[in-house]
Amino acid sequence: MSFPDFRARRLGLSAAVAIAAVTIVGTAAAQSMVVRSTGPSASKYPTGTKLKASDRVTLVAGDKVVLMQSGKTRTLSGPGTFGATGNVQASQSMGTTVTRMLAKGPTMRARGGFSRDATMPAPLEMRAPNLWLLDYREAGTFCVADPATLMLWRPHMDSDQLLRIEQGDKSETVAFVAGANFRKWPTDILPVQYGVDYRLSGAGLAAPVTVRFTAMESTPDTPEASVDALMVKGCTPQLDRLVDAMEEATAG
Questions:
Q1: What residues contact 3, with CB distance under 8 A and at least 6 apart?
Q2: pTM for the structure as a whole
Q3: Average of pLDDT values for 168-180?
Q4: Which one of 12, 168, 173, 233 has the largest count of C-beta atoms within 10 Å of its C-beta?
């Protein structure tokens, strides 16, 4: 075999490998994942379901399914039959909103609020702006990124409020002062323990809330990885928070 023939065959093989790689990547990128499902057909399309580009989603009246593809969301409402993939246009605020939601260390003012520029929501927003802030109104399992820096968050900061935290025979009261919408978890009195229940009451809560912590060994950098990790851990409140942020920031 001559050297030219060998080079030609090698180039042909490289091209075939490249085409196959593009095909595989394209197929993976075309997949969608169900990140929220409500209504009569919720059991048919449970959260976490992976859909191929060729799949069809059939919904009845009252159904709502939110799909995620390439870090963007697409909301389908019944009745109707829809393709699993479609063109989605993100709003200009999506990058800021989702990046802030995934950030490992949100910027905070000395008095307890978040520093904001003109594009950021007002401090009275009803959703915590970061996944790793514990919104004490949300019951359920909470994924903890760093127990030593766990912060409690409230939506309003125009008055003083007292939050009571109980675990077993221990309890502590955390004081939120006017002008602050977060306070550090009292780790000196109630260290963060995984797999035990904490009962939170007061501070504007209509009824006590029960929270249970689980460890998030590493904090994902992308919406897709974050959704996967939160689903695996069962951290539904944080998953809902992220999906809400993505859905609101996606047009179409």
A1: none
A2: 0.72
A3: 95
A4: 233
